[in-house]
Design a protein that fits this description.
The chain has 348 residues and is mostly helical. The chain has helices at residues 6-19, 24-53, 58-91, 98-110, 116-129, 146-151, 154-163, 166-185, 188-203, 207-229, 244-250, 263-271, 277-282, 288-298, 310-315, and strands at residues 144-145, 254-256, 307-309, 321-323, 328-330.
């Protein structure tokens, strides 16, 4: 399929234009549903945990432990979904009113410690420049080329190597990004809303529940984000050859989520169709609840988009650099900062 064929582009544009538009009633439903599940799980988690600790028999302990686990997973899932709903608000796509999107973004963002102003600035740059090798790719994983890494100063190679170690990148970076970086750069009123939320959590004795869940939720969300642009076969271009539509179709992935009866549906609900990231890059103004329908109805228009499973996403966490000459992602093998020389080593 020629992705630059004018007839193909015309069909794609017509399909995306047909799918465009927000629906306020559906937006209210998605927002209320997310907040309600979030609040219910946040309320239930400490109660179930205390019941498990105080149970008088092992069957009661087992039952209360199961309820604790369900509440914990549900709260983590609701945090992920709240982030996705905030993502729609930041794009101005959840509601038709720009005012309502902007007014609600700091409130929903507080649930996951996201600053709408910081997120929007970085995210707009991501949509404009992702996979453009002449633009900064900071914010994506495997953000440097091999040549860029090898020509960097020694301290820069050390810093890049350290940050891209998997325990750091997928363990420490996500919570530090949300609880540290976001808060330092947020506007005063965004920090004010977040401060009120933290005060409410402390007053209701739910601060521990929130803190315990934001770590795994942010780590899983970061893995999903990683899978959207760091996968085998990803297409990256220099500015002269960069094409926005091509980047949406083959520079972004379709994350294949397991379709297990209960867990699969729950995962679908948590992700809020963010797995259809290629559609989102082609039309950032589409609300999340429309992405799946747009993909499914598009049929062959999206055949070229790479499919990535969660298992494969875990496998690709090993990739740290992009070999422009070979047109593929590679690891640090033979390129650790303490290795002398700058010759391109064997890829693995």
């Amino acid at each position: 399929m020629d992705l630059k064929d004018p007839a193909f582009r015309a069909r794609l544009d017509a399909h995306l234009d047909y799918s465009a538009g927000s629906d306020d009633a559906r937006g209210v439903r998605e927002l209320v549903e997310t907040v309600a599940v979030y609040a219910l799980a946040l309320w239930a988690l400490p109660l179930a945990f205390d019941a498990a600790r105080g149970a008088a028999s092992w069957p009661a302990t087992l039952a209360c432990g199961a309820m604790t686990f369900v509440a914990y997973v549900t709260l983590a899932g609701a945090q992920i979904r709240a982030f996705m709903v905030h993502h729609d608000l930041a794009h101005g796509s959840l509601f038709t009113s720009r005012r309502w999107n902007r007014a609600l973004a700091p409130i929903i963002g507080a649930l996951v410690s996201v600053s709408p102003s910081v997120w929007q600035k970085e995210h707009d740059r991501h949509h404009k420049d992702s996979n453009n090798l002449d633009k900064s790719q900071d914010g994506q994983t495997a953000s440097w080329t091999v040549a860029q890494y090898e020509s960097a100063a020694a301290w820069q190679r050390w810093a890049y190597w350290l940050v891209n170690q998997r325990p750091v990148l997928f363990g420490l970076v996500p919570p530090l990004y949300f609880l540290g970086f976001m808060r330092v750069r947020a506007r005063w009123y965004e920090n004010g809303v977040f401060g009120l939320f933290v005060a409410l959590l402390w007053w209701t004795d739910r601060l521990g529940a929130f803190a315990s869940v934001i770590l795994p939720a942010s780590m899983f969300g970061f893995l999903v984000f990683h899978a959207q642009h760091t996968f085998e076969g990803v297409v990256k271009r220099r500015d002269a050859a960069y094409d926005f539509v091509e980047n949406g179709l083959v520079g972004s992935s379709l994350l294949v989520v397991p379709r297990w009866p209960v867990l699969g549906r729950f995962l679908d609900w948590c992700l809020y169709s963010v797995e259809y990231h290629h559609v989102h890059h082609l039309r950032p103004g589409l609300p999340g609840w429309k992405l799946k329908g747009c993909h499914d109805e598009g049929g062959a228009l999206f055949d070229a988009t790479p499919r990535v499973t969660l298992g494969h996403a875990l496998f690709t966490t090993r990739f740290t650099l992009y070999d422009e000459a070979g047109g593929k992602l590679v690891t640090f093998a033979g390129r650790a900062p303490w290795h002398a020389g700058s010759a391109l080593q064997k890829n693995v």
